[in-house]
Amino acid sequence: MTQKRPFSPIAIVLMASVCLLGACTGVVDRRGFLADESQQAPFQDGVDTKETVLSRMGNPSQTGTFDEQTWYYISAIQKQTAFYKPRTTERTIMAISFDDSDKVASQRKYTLADGRVIAYDNRRTPTRGREVTFLEQIFGSIGRAPVQLPGSDPNLPTSAGGPRRN
């Protein structure tokens, strides 16, 4: 009587490869304002007010920093594959500006293509003073003893060396 193996080597290799490929599928993350189809209709300039925008869109993701009469609704979709850094695949920013009577003055829509890459400067800001090397920091305090001023109490925590125990 022959003994049956529970799994053949080919089946084990196939299951392992399916598991490895399944681990590489991307994770999609939706962030920010999630609009549905009823909210996509544009607002009428001069007719719609802040209340109608709030009722259709809800609270804004952000208001203007210097001008609170501009509301921003921001949404982004990011995808991360395995251990790689997440990358933004889609971004939408809806900017709605209001006039002094709280009516819609203008509306603009920005996408990922409208964004700009900002190049950060990686230079260091110089500091004043002398730079001390590692060895100077270690050996710089050798030979320096705490100075005890005449007439000062050695048990006070403000004196050199801290309080003394008797």
Automatic annotation (TrEMBL):
Top-level taxon of the source organism: Bacteria
Region (Disordered): 145-166
Membrane as UniProt keyword: yes
Coiled-coil intervals, chain numbering: none
A GO-annotated cellular component: outer membrane
Keywords, in A-Z order: Membrane, Signal
InterPro entries, A to Z: BamE-like (IPR037873), BamE_dom (IPR007450)
Transmembrane segments: none
Domain Outer membrane protein assembly factor BamE, first and last residues per copy: 44-106
Protein name, entry field: Outer membrane protein assembly factor BamE
Protein source organism: Candidatus Phycosocius bacilliformis
Gene: bamE
